[in-house]
């Protein structure tokens, strides 16, 4: 959709909203539809090719408005999470459509998803331990619970441990900045010997620092064997798994209890939209379910509906699945795949430019849309380069530390980025690098 069409469609939407407000007294206060009405009205998977904007708008009035905002808000989310799960080729245990035990929910962020998973795992572990030893108090168990993540995991994982009131230990990553089975097993044995209770592991696919991937095929079986909840955080990288050539990066997700990634990061869905799936939704509802009188309704015990308020921290929620529905239909799966592939191609283009300049080095494998690079030399010279780049305000880079190295990160993430932008950015970086190196020699 170009800017001209965007203006036209935007005006049409204003007219739609205005017409709705003018005619609102002619609409029913409460819908006639029954729970489960929506799924039979739409396809069971996302279209491969784009739909027209007119078809989507017509479906809003035909399919959504009869159930707005309930049950359409809930039911479209359930179906969209199944659509997205199929695009990722998630195991069927994570989907809702076959009346299984799992399902998907839209959280506000990956940070929320990690916290929700940790709290659910904590409740599950406490119940299990108290069932085996009724004399154990919750406080006695809590002080011994310990969770694990790679030393490359996002800081939100550490924050989840702080909020959840449990110990969190960082597992040293290997030479590729990945968590491996041997290091995790060593930590588990040490902690069990010290009387601690391991209960939760976060594996990261596509770390923030360098887009490294924890080894799920190694870590997953250990978590299952040790009865620990495995949460997979693929906040950035998860979008790429809709492409068959990148799906192998998700291998091992079958061992996970929960999986999360952010369509708002790299799948063209506006913030906020963080997709989370669980194998057993009862693990979430068991941790968060409360039913005061003012929230009870006639269908809550029917088994026909999903009460997402029991799947999350907030009580209120927005109609976030509607924007997923628009994006998936406006682009089609093939359009979204092409978007991901273009960004990966551009990141490799930047990587090749860096490798052609002997002053620079690549610091981590380039798998998706992130390139970690630096000037050969001291951290000080790289800090000076970053300061010049960001002060010039033509491009913006965010750094990281990989072991003892200060590293610059070049991320391809704009919807409109082209090869010319990458080439221009590299020329700009080279010019500033020359200035930095000249200043260092003087």
UniProtKB/TrEMBL annotation:
The lineage of its organism: Eukaryota, Metazoa, Chordata, Craniata, Vertebrata. Pfam families: Pyridoxal_deC (PF00282). This is Aromatic-L-amino-acid decarboxylase. The modification N6-(pyridoxal phosphate)lysine is found at residue 265. One of its GO terms (cellular component) is cytoplasm. Pathway: Catecholamine biosynthesis; dopamine biosynthesis; dopamine from L-tyrosine: step 2/2. GO terms for biological process: amino acid metabolic process; carboxylic acid metabolic process; catecholamine biosynthetic process; serotonin biosynthetic process. PANTHER family: AROMATIC-L-AMINO-ACID DECARBOXYLASE (PTHR11999:SF167), GROUP II PYRIDOXAL-5-PHOSPHATE DECARBOXYLASE (PTHR11999). GO terms for molecular function: aromatic-L-amino-acid decarboxylase activity; pyridoxal phosphate binding. It comes from Macaca fascicularis. Homodimer. Keywords: Catecholamine biosynthesis, Decarboxylase, Lyase, Pyridoxal phosphate. Belongs to the group II decarboxylase family.
């Amino acid at each position: 959709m170009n800017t001209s069409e965007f203006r036209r469609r935007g005006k049409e939407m204003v007219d739609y909203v205005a017409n709705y407000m003018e005619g609102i007294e002619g609409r029913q206060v409460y819908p006639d539809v029954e729970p489960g009405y929506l799924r039979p009205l739409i396809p069971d998977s996302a279209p491969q090719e784009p739909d027209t904007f007119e078809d989507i708008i017509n479906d809003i009035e035909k399919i959504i408005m009869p159930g707005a905002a309930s049950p359409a808000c809930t039911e479209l989310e359930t179906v969209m999470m199944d659509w997205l799960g199929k695009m990722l080729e998630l195991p069927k245990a994570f989907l809702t459509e076959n009346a299984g035990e799992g399902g998907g929910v839209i959280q506000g962020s990956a940070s929320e998803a990690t916290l929700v998973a940790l709290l659910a795992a904590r409740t599950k572990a406490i119940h299990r331990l108290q069932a085996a030893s009724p004399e154990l108090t919750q406080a006695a168990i809590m002080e011994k619970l310990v969770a694990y993540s790679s030393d490359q995991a996002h800081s939100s994982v550490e924050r989840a441990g702080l909020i959840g009131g449990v110990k969190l230990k960082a597992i040293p990553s290997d030479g590729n900045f990945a968590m491996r089975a041997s290091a995790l097993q060593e930590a588990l044995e040490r902690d069990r010997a010290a009387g601690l209770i391991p209960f939760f592991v976060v594996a990261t696919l596509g770390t923030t620092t360098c887009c490294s991937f924890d080894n799920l095929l190694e870590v997953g079986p250990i978590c299952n064997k040790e009865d620990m909840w495995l949460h997979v955080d693929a906040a950035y990288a998860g979008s790429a798994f809709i492409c068959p050539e990148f799906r192998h990066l998700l291998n091992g997700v079958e061992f996970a209890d929960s999986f999360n990634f952010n369509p708002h990061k790299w799948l063209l869905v506006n913030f906020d939209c963080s997709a989370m799936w669980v194998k057993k939704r009862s693990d979430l509802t068991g941790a968060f379910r409360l039913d005061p009188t003012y929230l009870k309704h006639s269908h809550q015990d029917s088994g026909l509906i999903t009460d997402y308020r029991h799947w999350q921290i907030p009580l209120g929620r927005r109609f976030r699945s509607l924007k997923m529905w628009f994006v998936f239909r406006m682009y089609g799966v093939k359009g979204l795949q092409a978007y991901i592939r273009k960004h990966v191609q551009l990141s490799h283009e930047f990587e090749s430019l860096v490798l052609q300049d002997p002053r620079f080095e690549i610091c981590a494998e380039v798998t998706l849309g992130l390139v970690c690079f630096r000037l050969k030399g001291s951290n000080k010279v790289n800090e000076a380069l970053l300061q010049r780049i960001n002060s010039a305000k033509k491009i913006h880079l965010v750094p990281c530390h990989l072991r003892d190295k200060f590293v610059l990160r070049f991320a391809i993430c704009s919807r409109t980025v082209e090869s010319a932008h990458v080439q221009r950015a590299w020329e700009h970086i080279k010019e500033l690098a020359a200035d930095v190196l000249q200043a260092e020699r003087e």
